[in-house]
Amino acid sequence: MIGDYSMKKTMLEVNDLKKTYLMKGGRKIDAVRGVSFDVYEGEVFGFLGPNGAGKSTTINMLTTQLEISGGKVLVDGLSVKDSPEKVRQSIGVVAQHNNLDRGLTARENLLYHASYFGMTKKEADEKADYYLAKLGLTERQNDYVKSYSGGMAQRLKIARAMIHQPKILFLDEPTTGLDPAYRHILWELMMELNKQGTTIFLTTHYMEEPEAFCDRVAIMNQGEIKGIGTVEELKNSIPTSDIIKLDAQLSDKQISELAKDVKSVERATKHENDILIYVKEKDKALTQVLEWLTEKKVSVKNLSLSAVTLDDVFIHLTKGTHKK
Amino acid sequence: MKKISSFKVFTTMVKRDLVIQLRDKWEFIFRVAMLPFVLILVYGYILPKIGVLDASFPSQMFPGMVGMSMLLTGIHGTAVPLTMDFNNSREIEDRLQAPVKTGVVALAKMTVGFIESFIGGLIVLPISLIFMADQINVTITLSNVLPLIGVLVLTAITSACLGLLVGTIVKPRQIAAMFPGFLMPVVFTGAIFFSWESLSNVPVFQWLVLINPLVHINEALRFFMTPQILSLDIWYSLLGIVVLTVLMLFFGSRRFVSMSKNK
Fold first, then answer.
1. Quick check: B98 and A88 CB within 8 A?
2. pTM higher than 0.80
3. Closest to B117 (Cα-Cα) out of B85, B148, B162
4. Do B91 and A113 touch (CB under 8 A)?
5. Structural domain boundaries, residue B167
6. How many independent structural domains does chain B possess?
């Protein structure tokens, strides 16, 4: 994990990155709208955002898989646009979907991939043995990948991306589809690689993962970075430290009234089945909210008070809220 | 930074494809052999035997069978894996992430198509020998061998280039339509059952079929294998093969780069 940023080399430099898709009829869609950020050597960087935010499009551009419409990306000082081959030598990529060679065995997948990166047979065999064992695939290493379950394929994709010891590893939702035990093993592996100097750039839907492992996090929505910093910095960016979670039937109009009427409420928003009420002075707020609910005769199934989590920051930055 | 040999990466990619193909060798042999088998059986054996076709017809057809088998096998060997890779399995992504130019990946795919094309040509020989051995009048002289090999090499290259173009245009759901919509017209207008010169009574058709690379291939093969049958001037045939191949390679490469960059 990273210490002082100012002392670190910039491993990934993203400047005003844009992606525009030209649709039928000449319509243009701006999937990524001038995104800028840096990732430092040895950092674990989380890239979060709701579905369709532009995360995968951004990762695809950073990893030379997608043409850039505008801006500049440097990976370890090399331009993605001008030197894509050299950039690819420094990176490992775990795609969201299964892009393994299904007609090859797991071991062959690793060995062919290692060979593309100039590894000798001996080096490749050693690394393959190590990652296959680490990810629990040794027994099935000589089976064709087409016979693999989703979780096994996911583990193999990760092993493949790691085998050539990239300087920076890009993972697009790597833990999706993995059971908790293998999620844990994967994080252990990533931390091990990170300790050896590999920079990690990942997207995930599990908020506890960046909270536990990421040095910094960027939250993207509608093609723009809405917030960037350490988890603590992002939590502090919300104008409240506590949240009341309410399981109750409230209309949008009522949520808006609640935010307006109750003094201690900063803002309120609906998220899945819950109503999230961002408050200051939690004890006072709790009483006031309960009084308001009683007055409006709202039946409440469940109510809880908690400190702000990364999940809350995510919702705050990516969802519409009812402000005062 | 470690120096990566593009050639080594290229050979690894070719090896990977051949290993996979070898695992499905019986499916490959069946796919490659069936069309020439049926055509040779009907047009080369049964129809001449029952007197519907002239006894010299197998000689006319033999170069066309070699050309057709090579072209179709090469197209299939390049196009079908490409379209599946890009649109369905997305297996090609791993190779596109290799630290080499994108063109190396395309060249590896085409090389596999090139090799398969030659195997496709070879498969025609035993089938022809079984059904038409005593009816084929093929003259290959020592001086003809090298130019004939040159034409066969050109044919395999053409098939790989056409495969690259087709594989980057056709979507997996369109593969079924590729046979009646593309391959059948190529086969039946490809100067297999007739020589180009014999079309002089239908001049519009005669000129139209010149856009079909198989016509030029078969005319060139006919020139070297069955010189007794009138064929298109060899230089025109070679020019036709080269021009069409360059055009297909140009557009195929553009499509490949475009698809690999998800434009």
1. yes
2. yes
3. B162
4. no
5. 6-260
6. 1
Torsion B223-B224-B225-B229 (CA) sign: positive
Please, what's the b/e burial string for B8-30 (b: 16 or more CB within 10 A of its CB; e: otherwise)? ebbebbbebbeebbeeeeeebee
pLDDT tens-digit series, residues A185-197: 888 888 888 998 8
CA dist., res. A137 & res. A144, Å (int): 12
A317 pLDDT band, cuts 50/70/90, is: confident
- Cβ–Cβ below 8 Å for A60 and B262: yes
Alpha-helical segments (H) within chain B: 6-23, 25-39, 47-49, 57-84, 92-96, 102-132, 142-169, 175-178, 184-188, 203-208, 213-225, 234-260
* DSSP code string of A175-196: TTT--HHHHHHHHHHHHHHHHT
Residue B1 in any domain: the answer is no
- And the tokens for A110? 């690793």
How far is the first Cα of chain B from the last one, in angstroms, to the nearest whole number? Answer: 29
Q: What is the predicted pLDDT for the residue at B172?
A: 86
Q: Provide, as residue numbers in chain A, all residues whose Cβ is less than 8 Å from the Cβ of B98.
A: 88, 116-117
Contacts of B256 in chain A (CB under 8 A): none
Give yes or no for residue A45 having a pLDDT over 70: yes
Domains delineated in chain A: 5-235 (3.40.50.300), 239-323 (3.30.70.980)
Q: Does A269 touch chain B (CB under 8 A)?
A: no
Phi, psi (5° rounding) for residue A323? Answer: -95, 170
For chain B, say whether A113 makes contact (Cβ under 8 Å).
Answer: yes
Chain B residues with CB inside 8 Å of A63's CB?
Answer: 97
Measure in Å the smallest separation between the Cα of B210 and chain A Cα atoms: 35
B37 domain residue, yes or no: yes
B-chain residues near A101 (CB < 8 A): 16, 20, 91, 94
Are B98 and A60 a contacting pair at CB < 8 A? no
**Measured between alpha carbons, how far is B65 from B100 in angstroms, rounded to an integer?**
38
Q: Is the pLDDT of residue B99 over 60?
A: yes
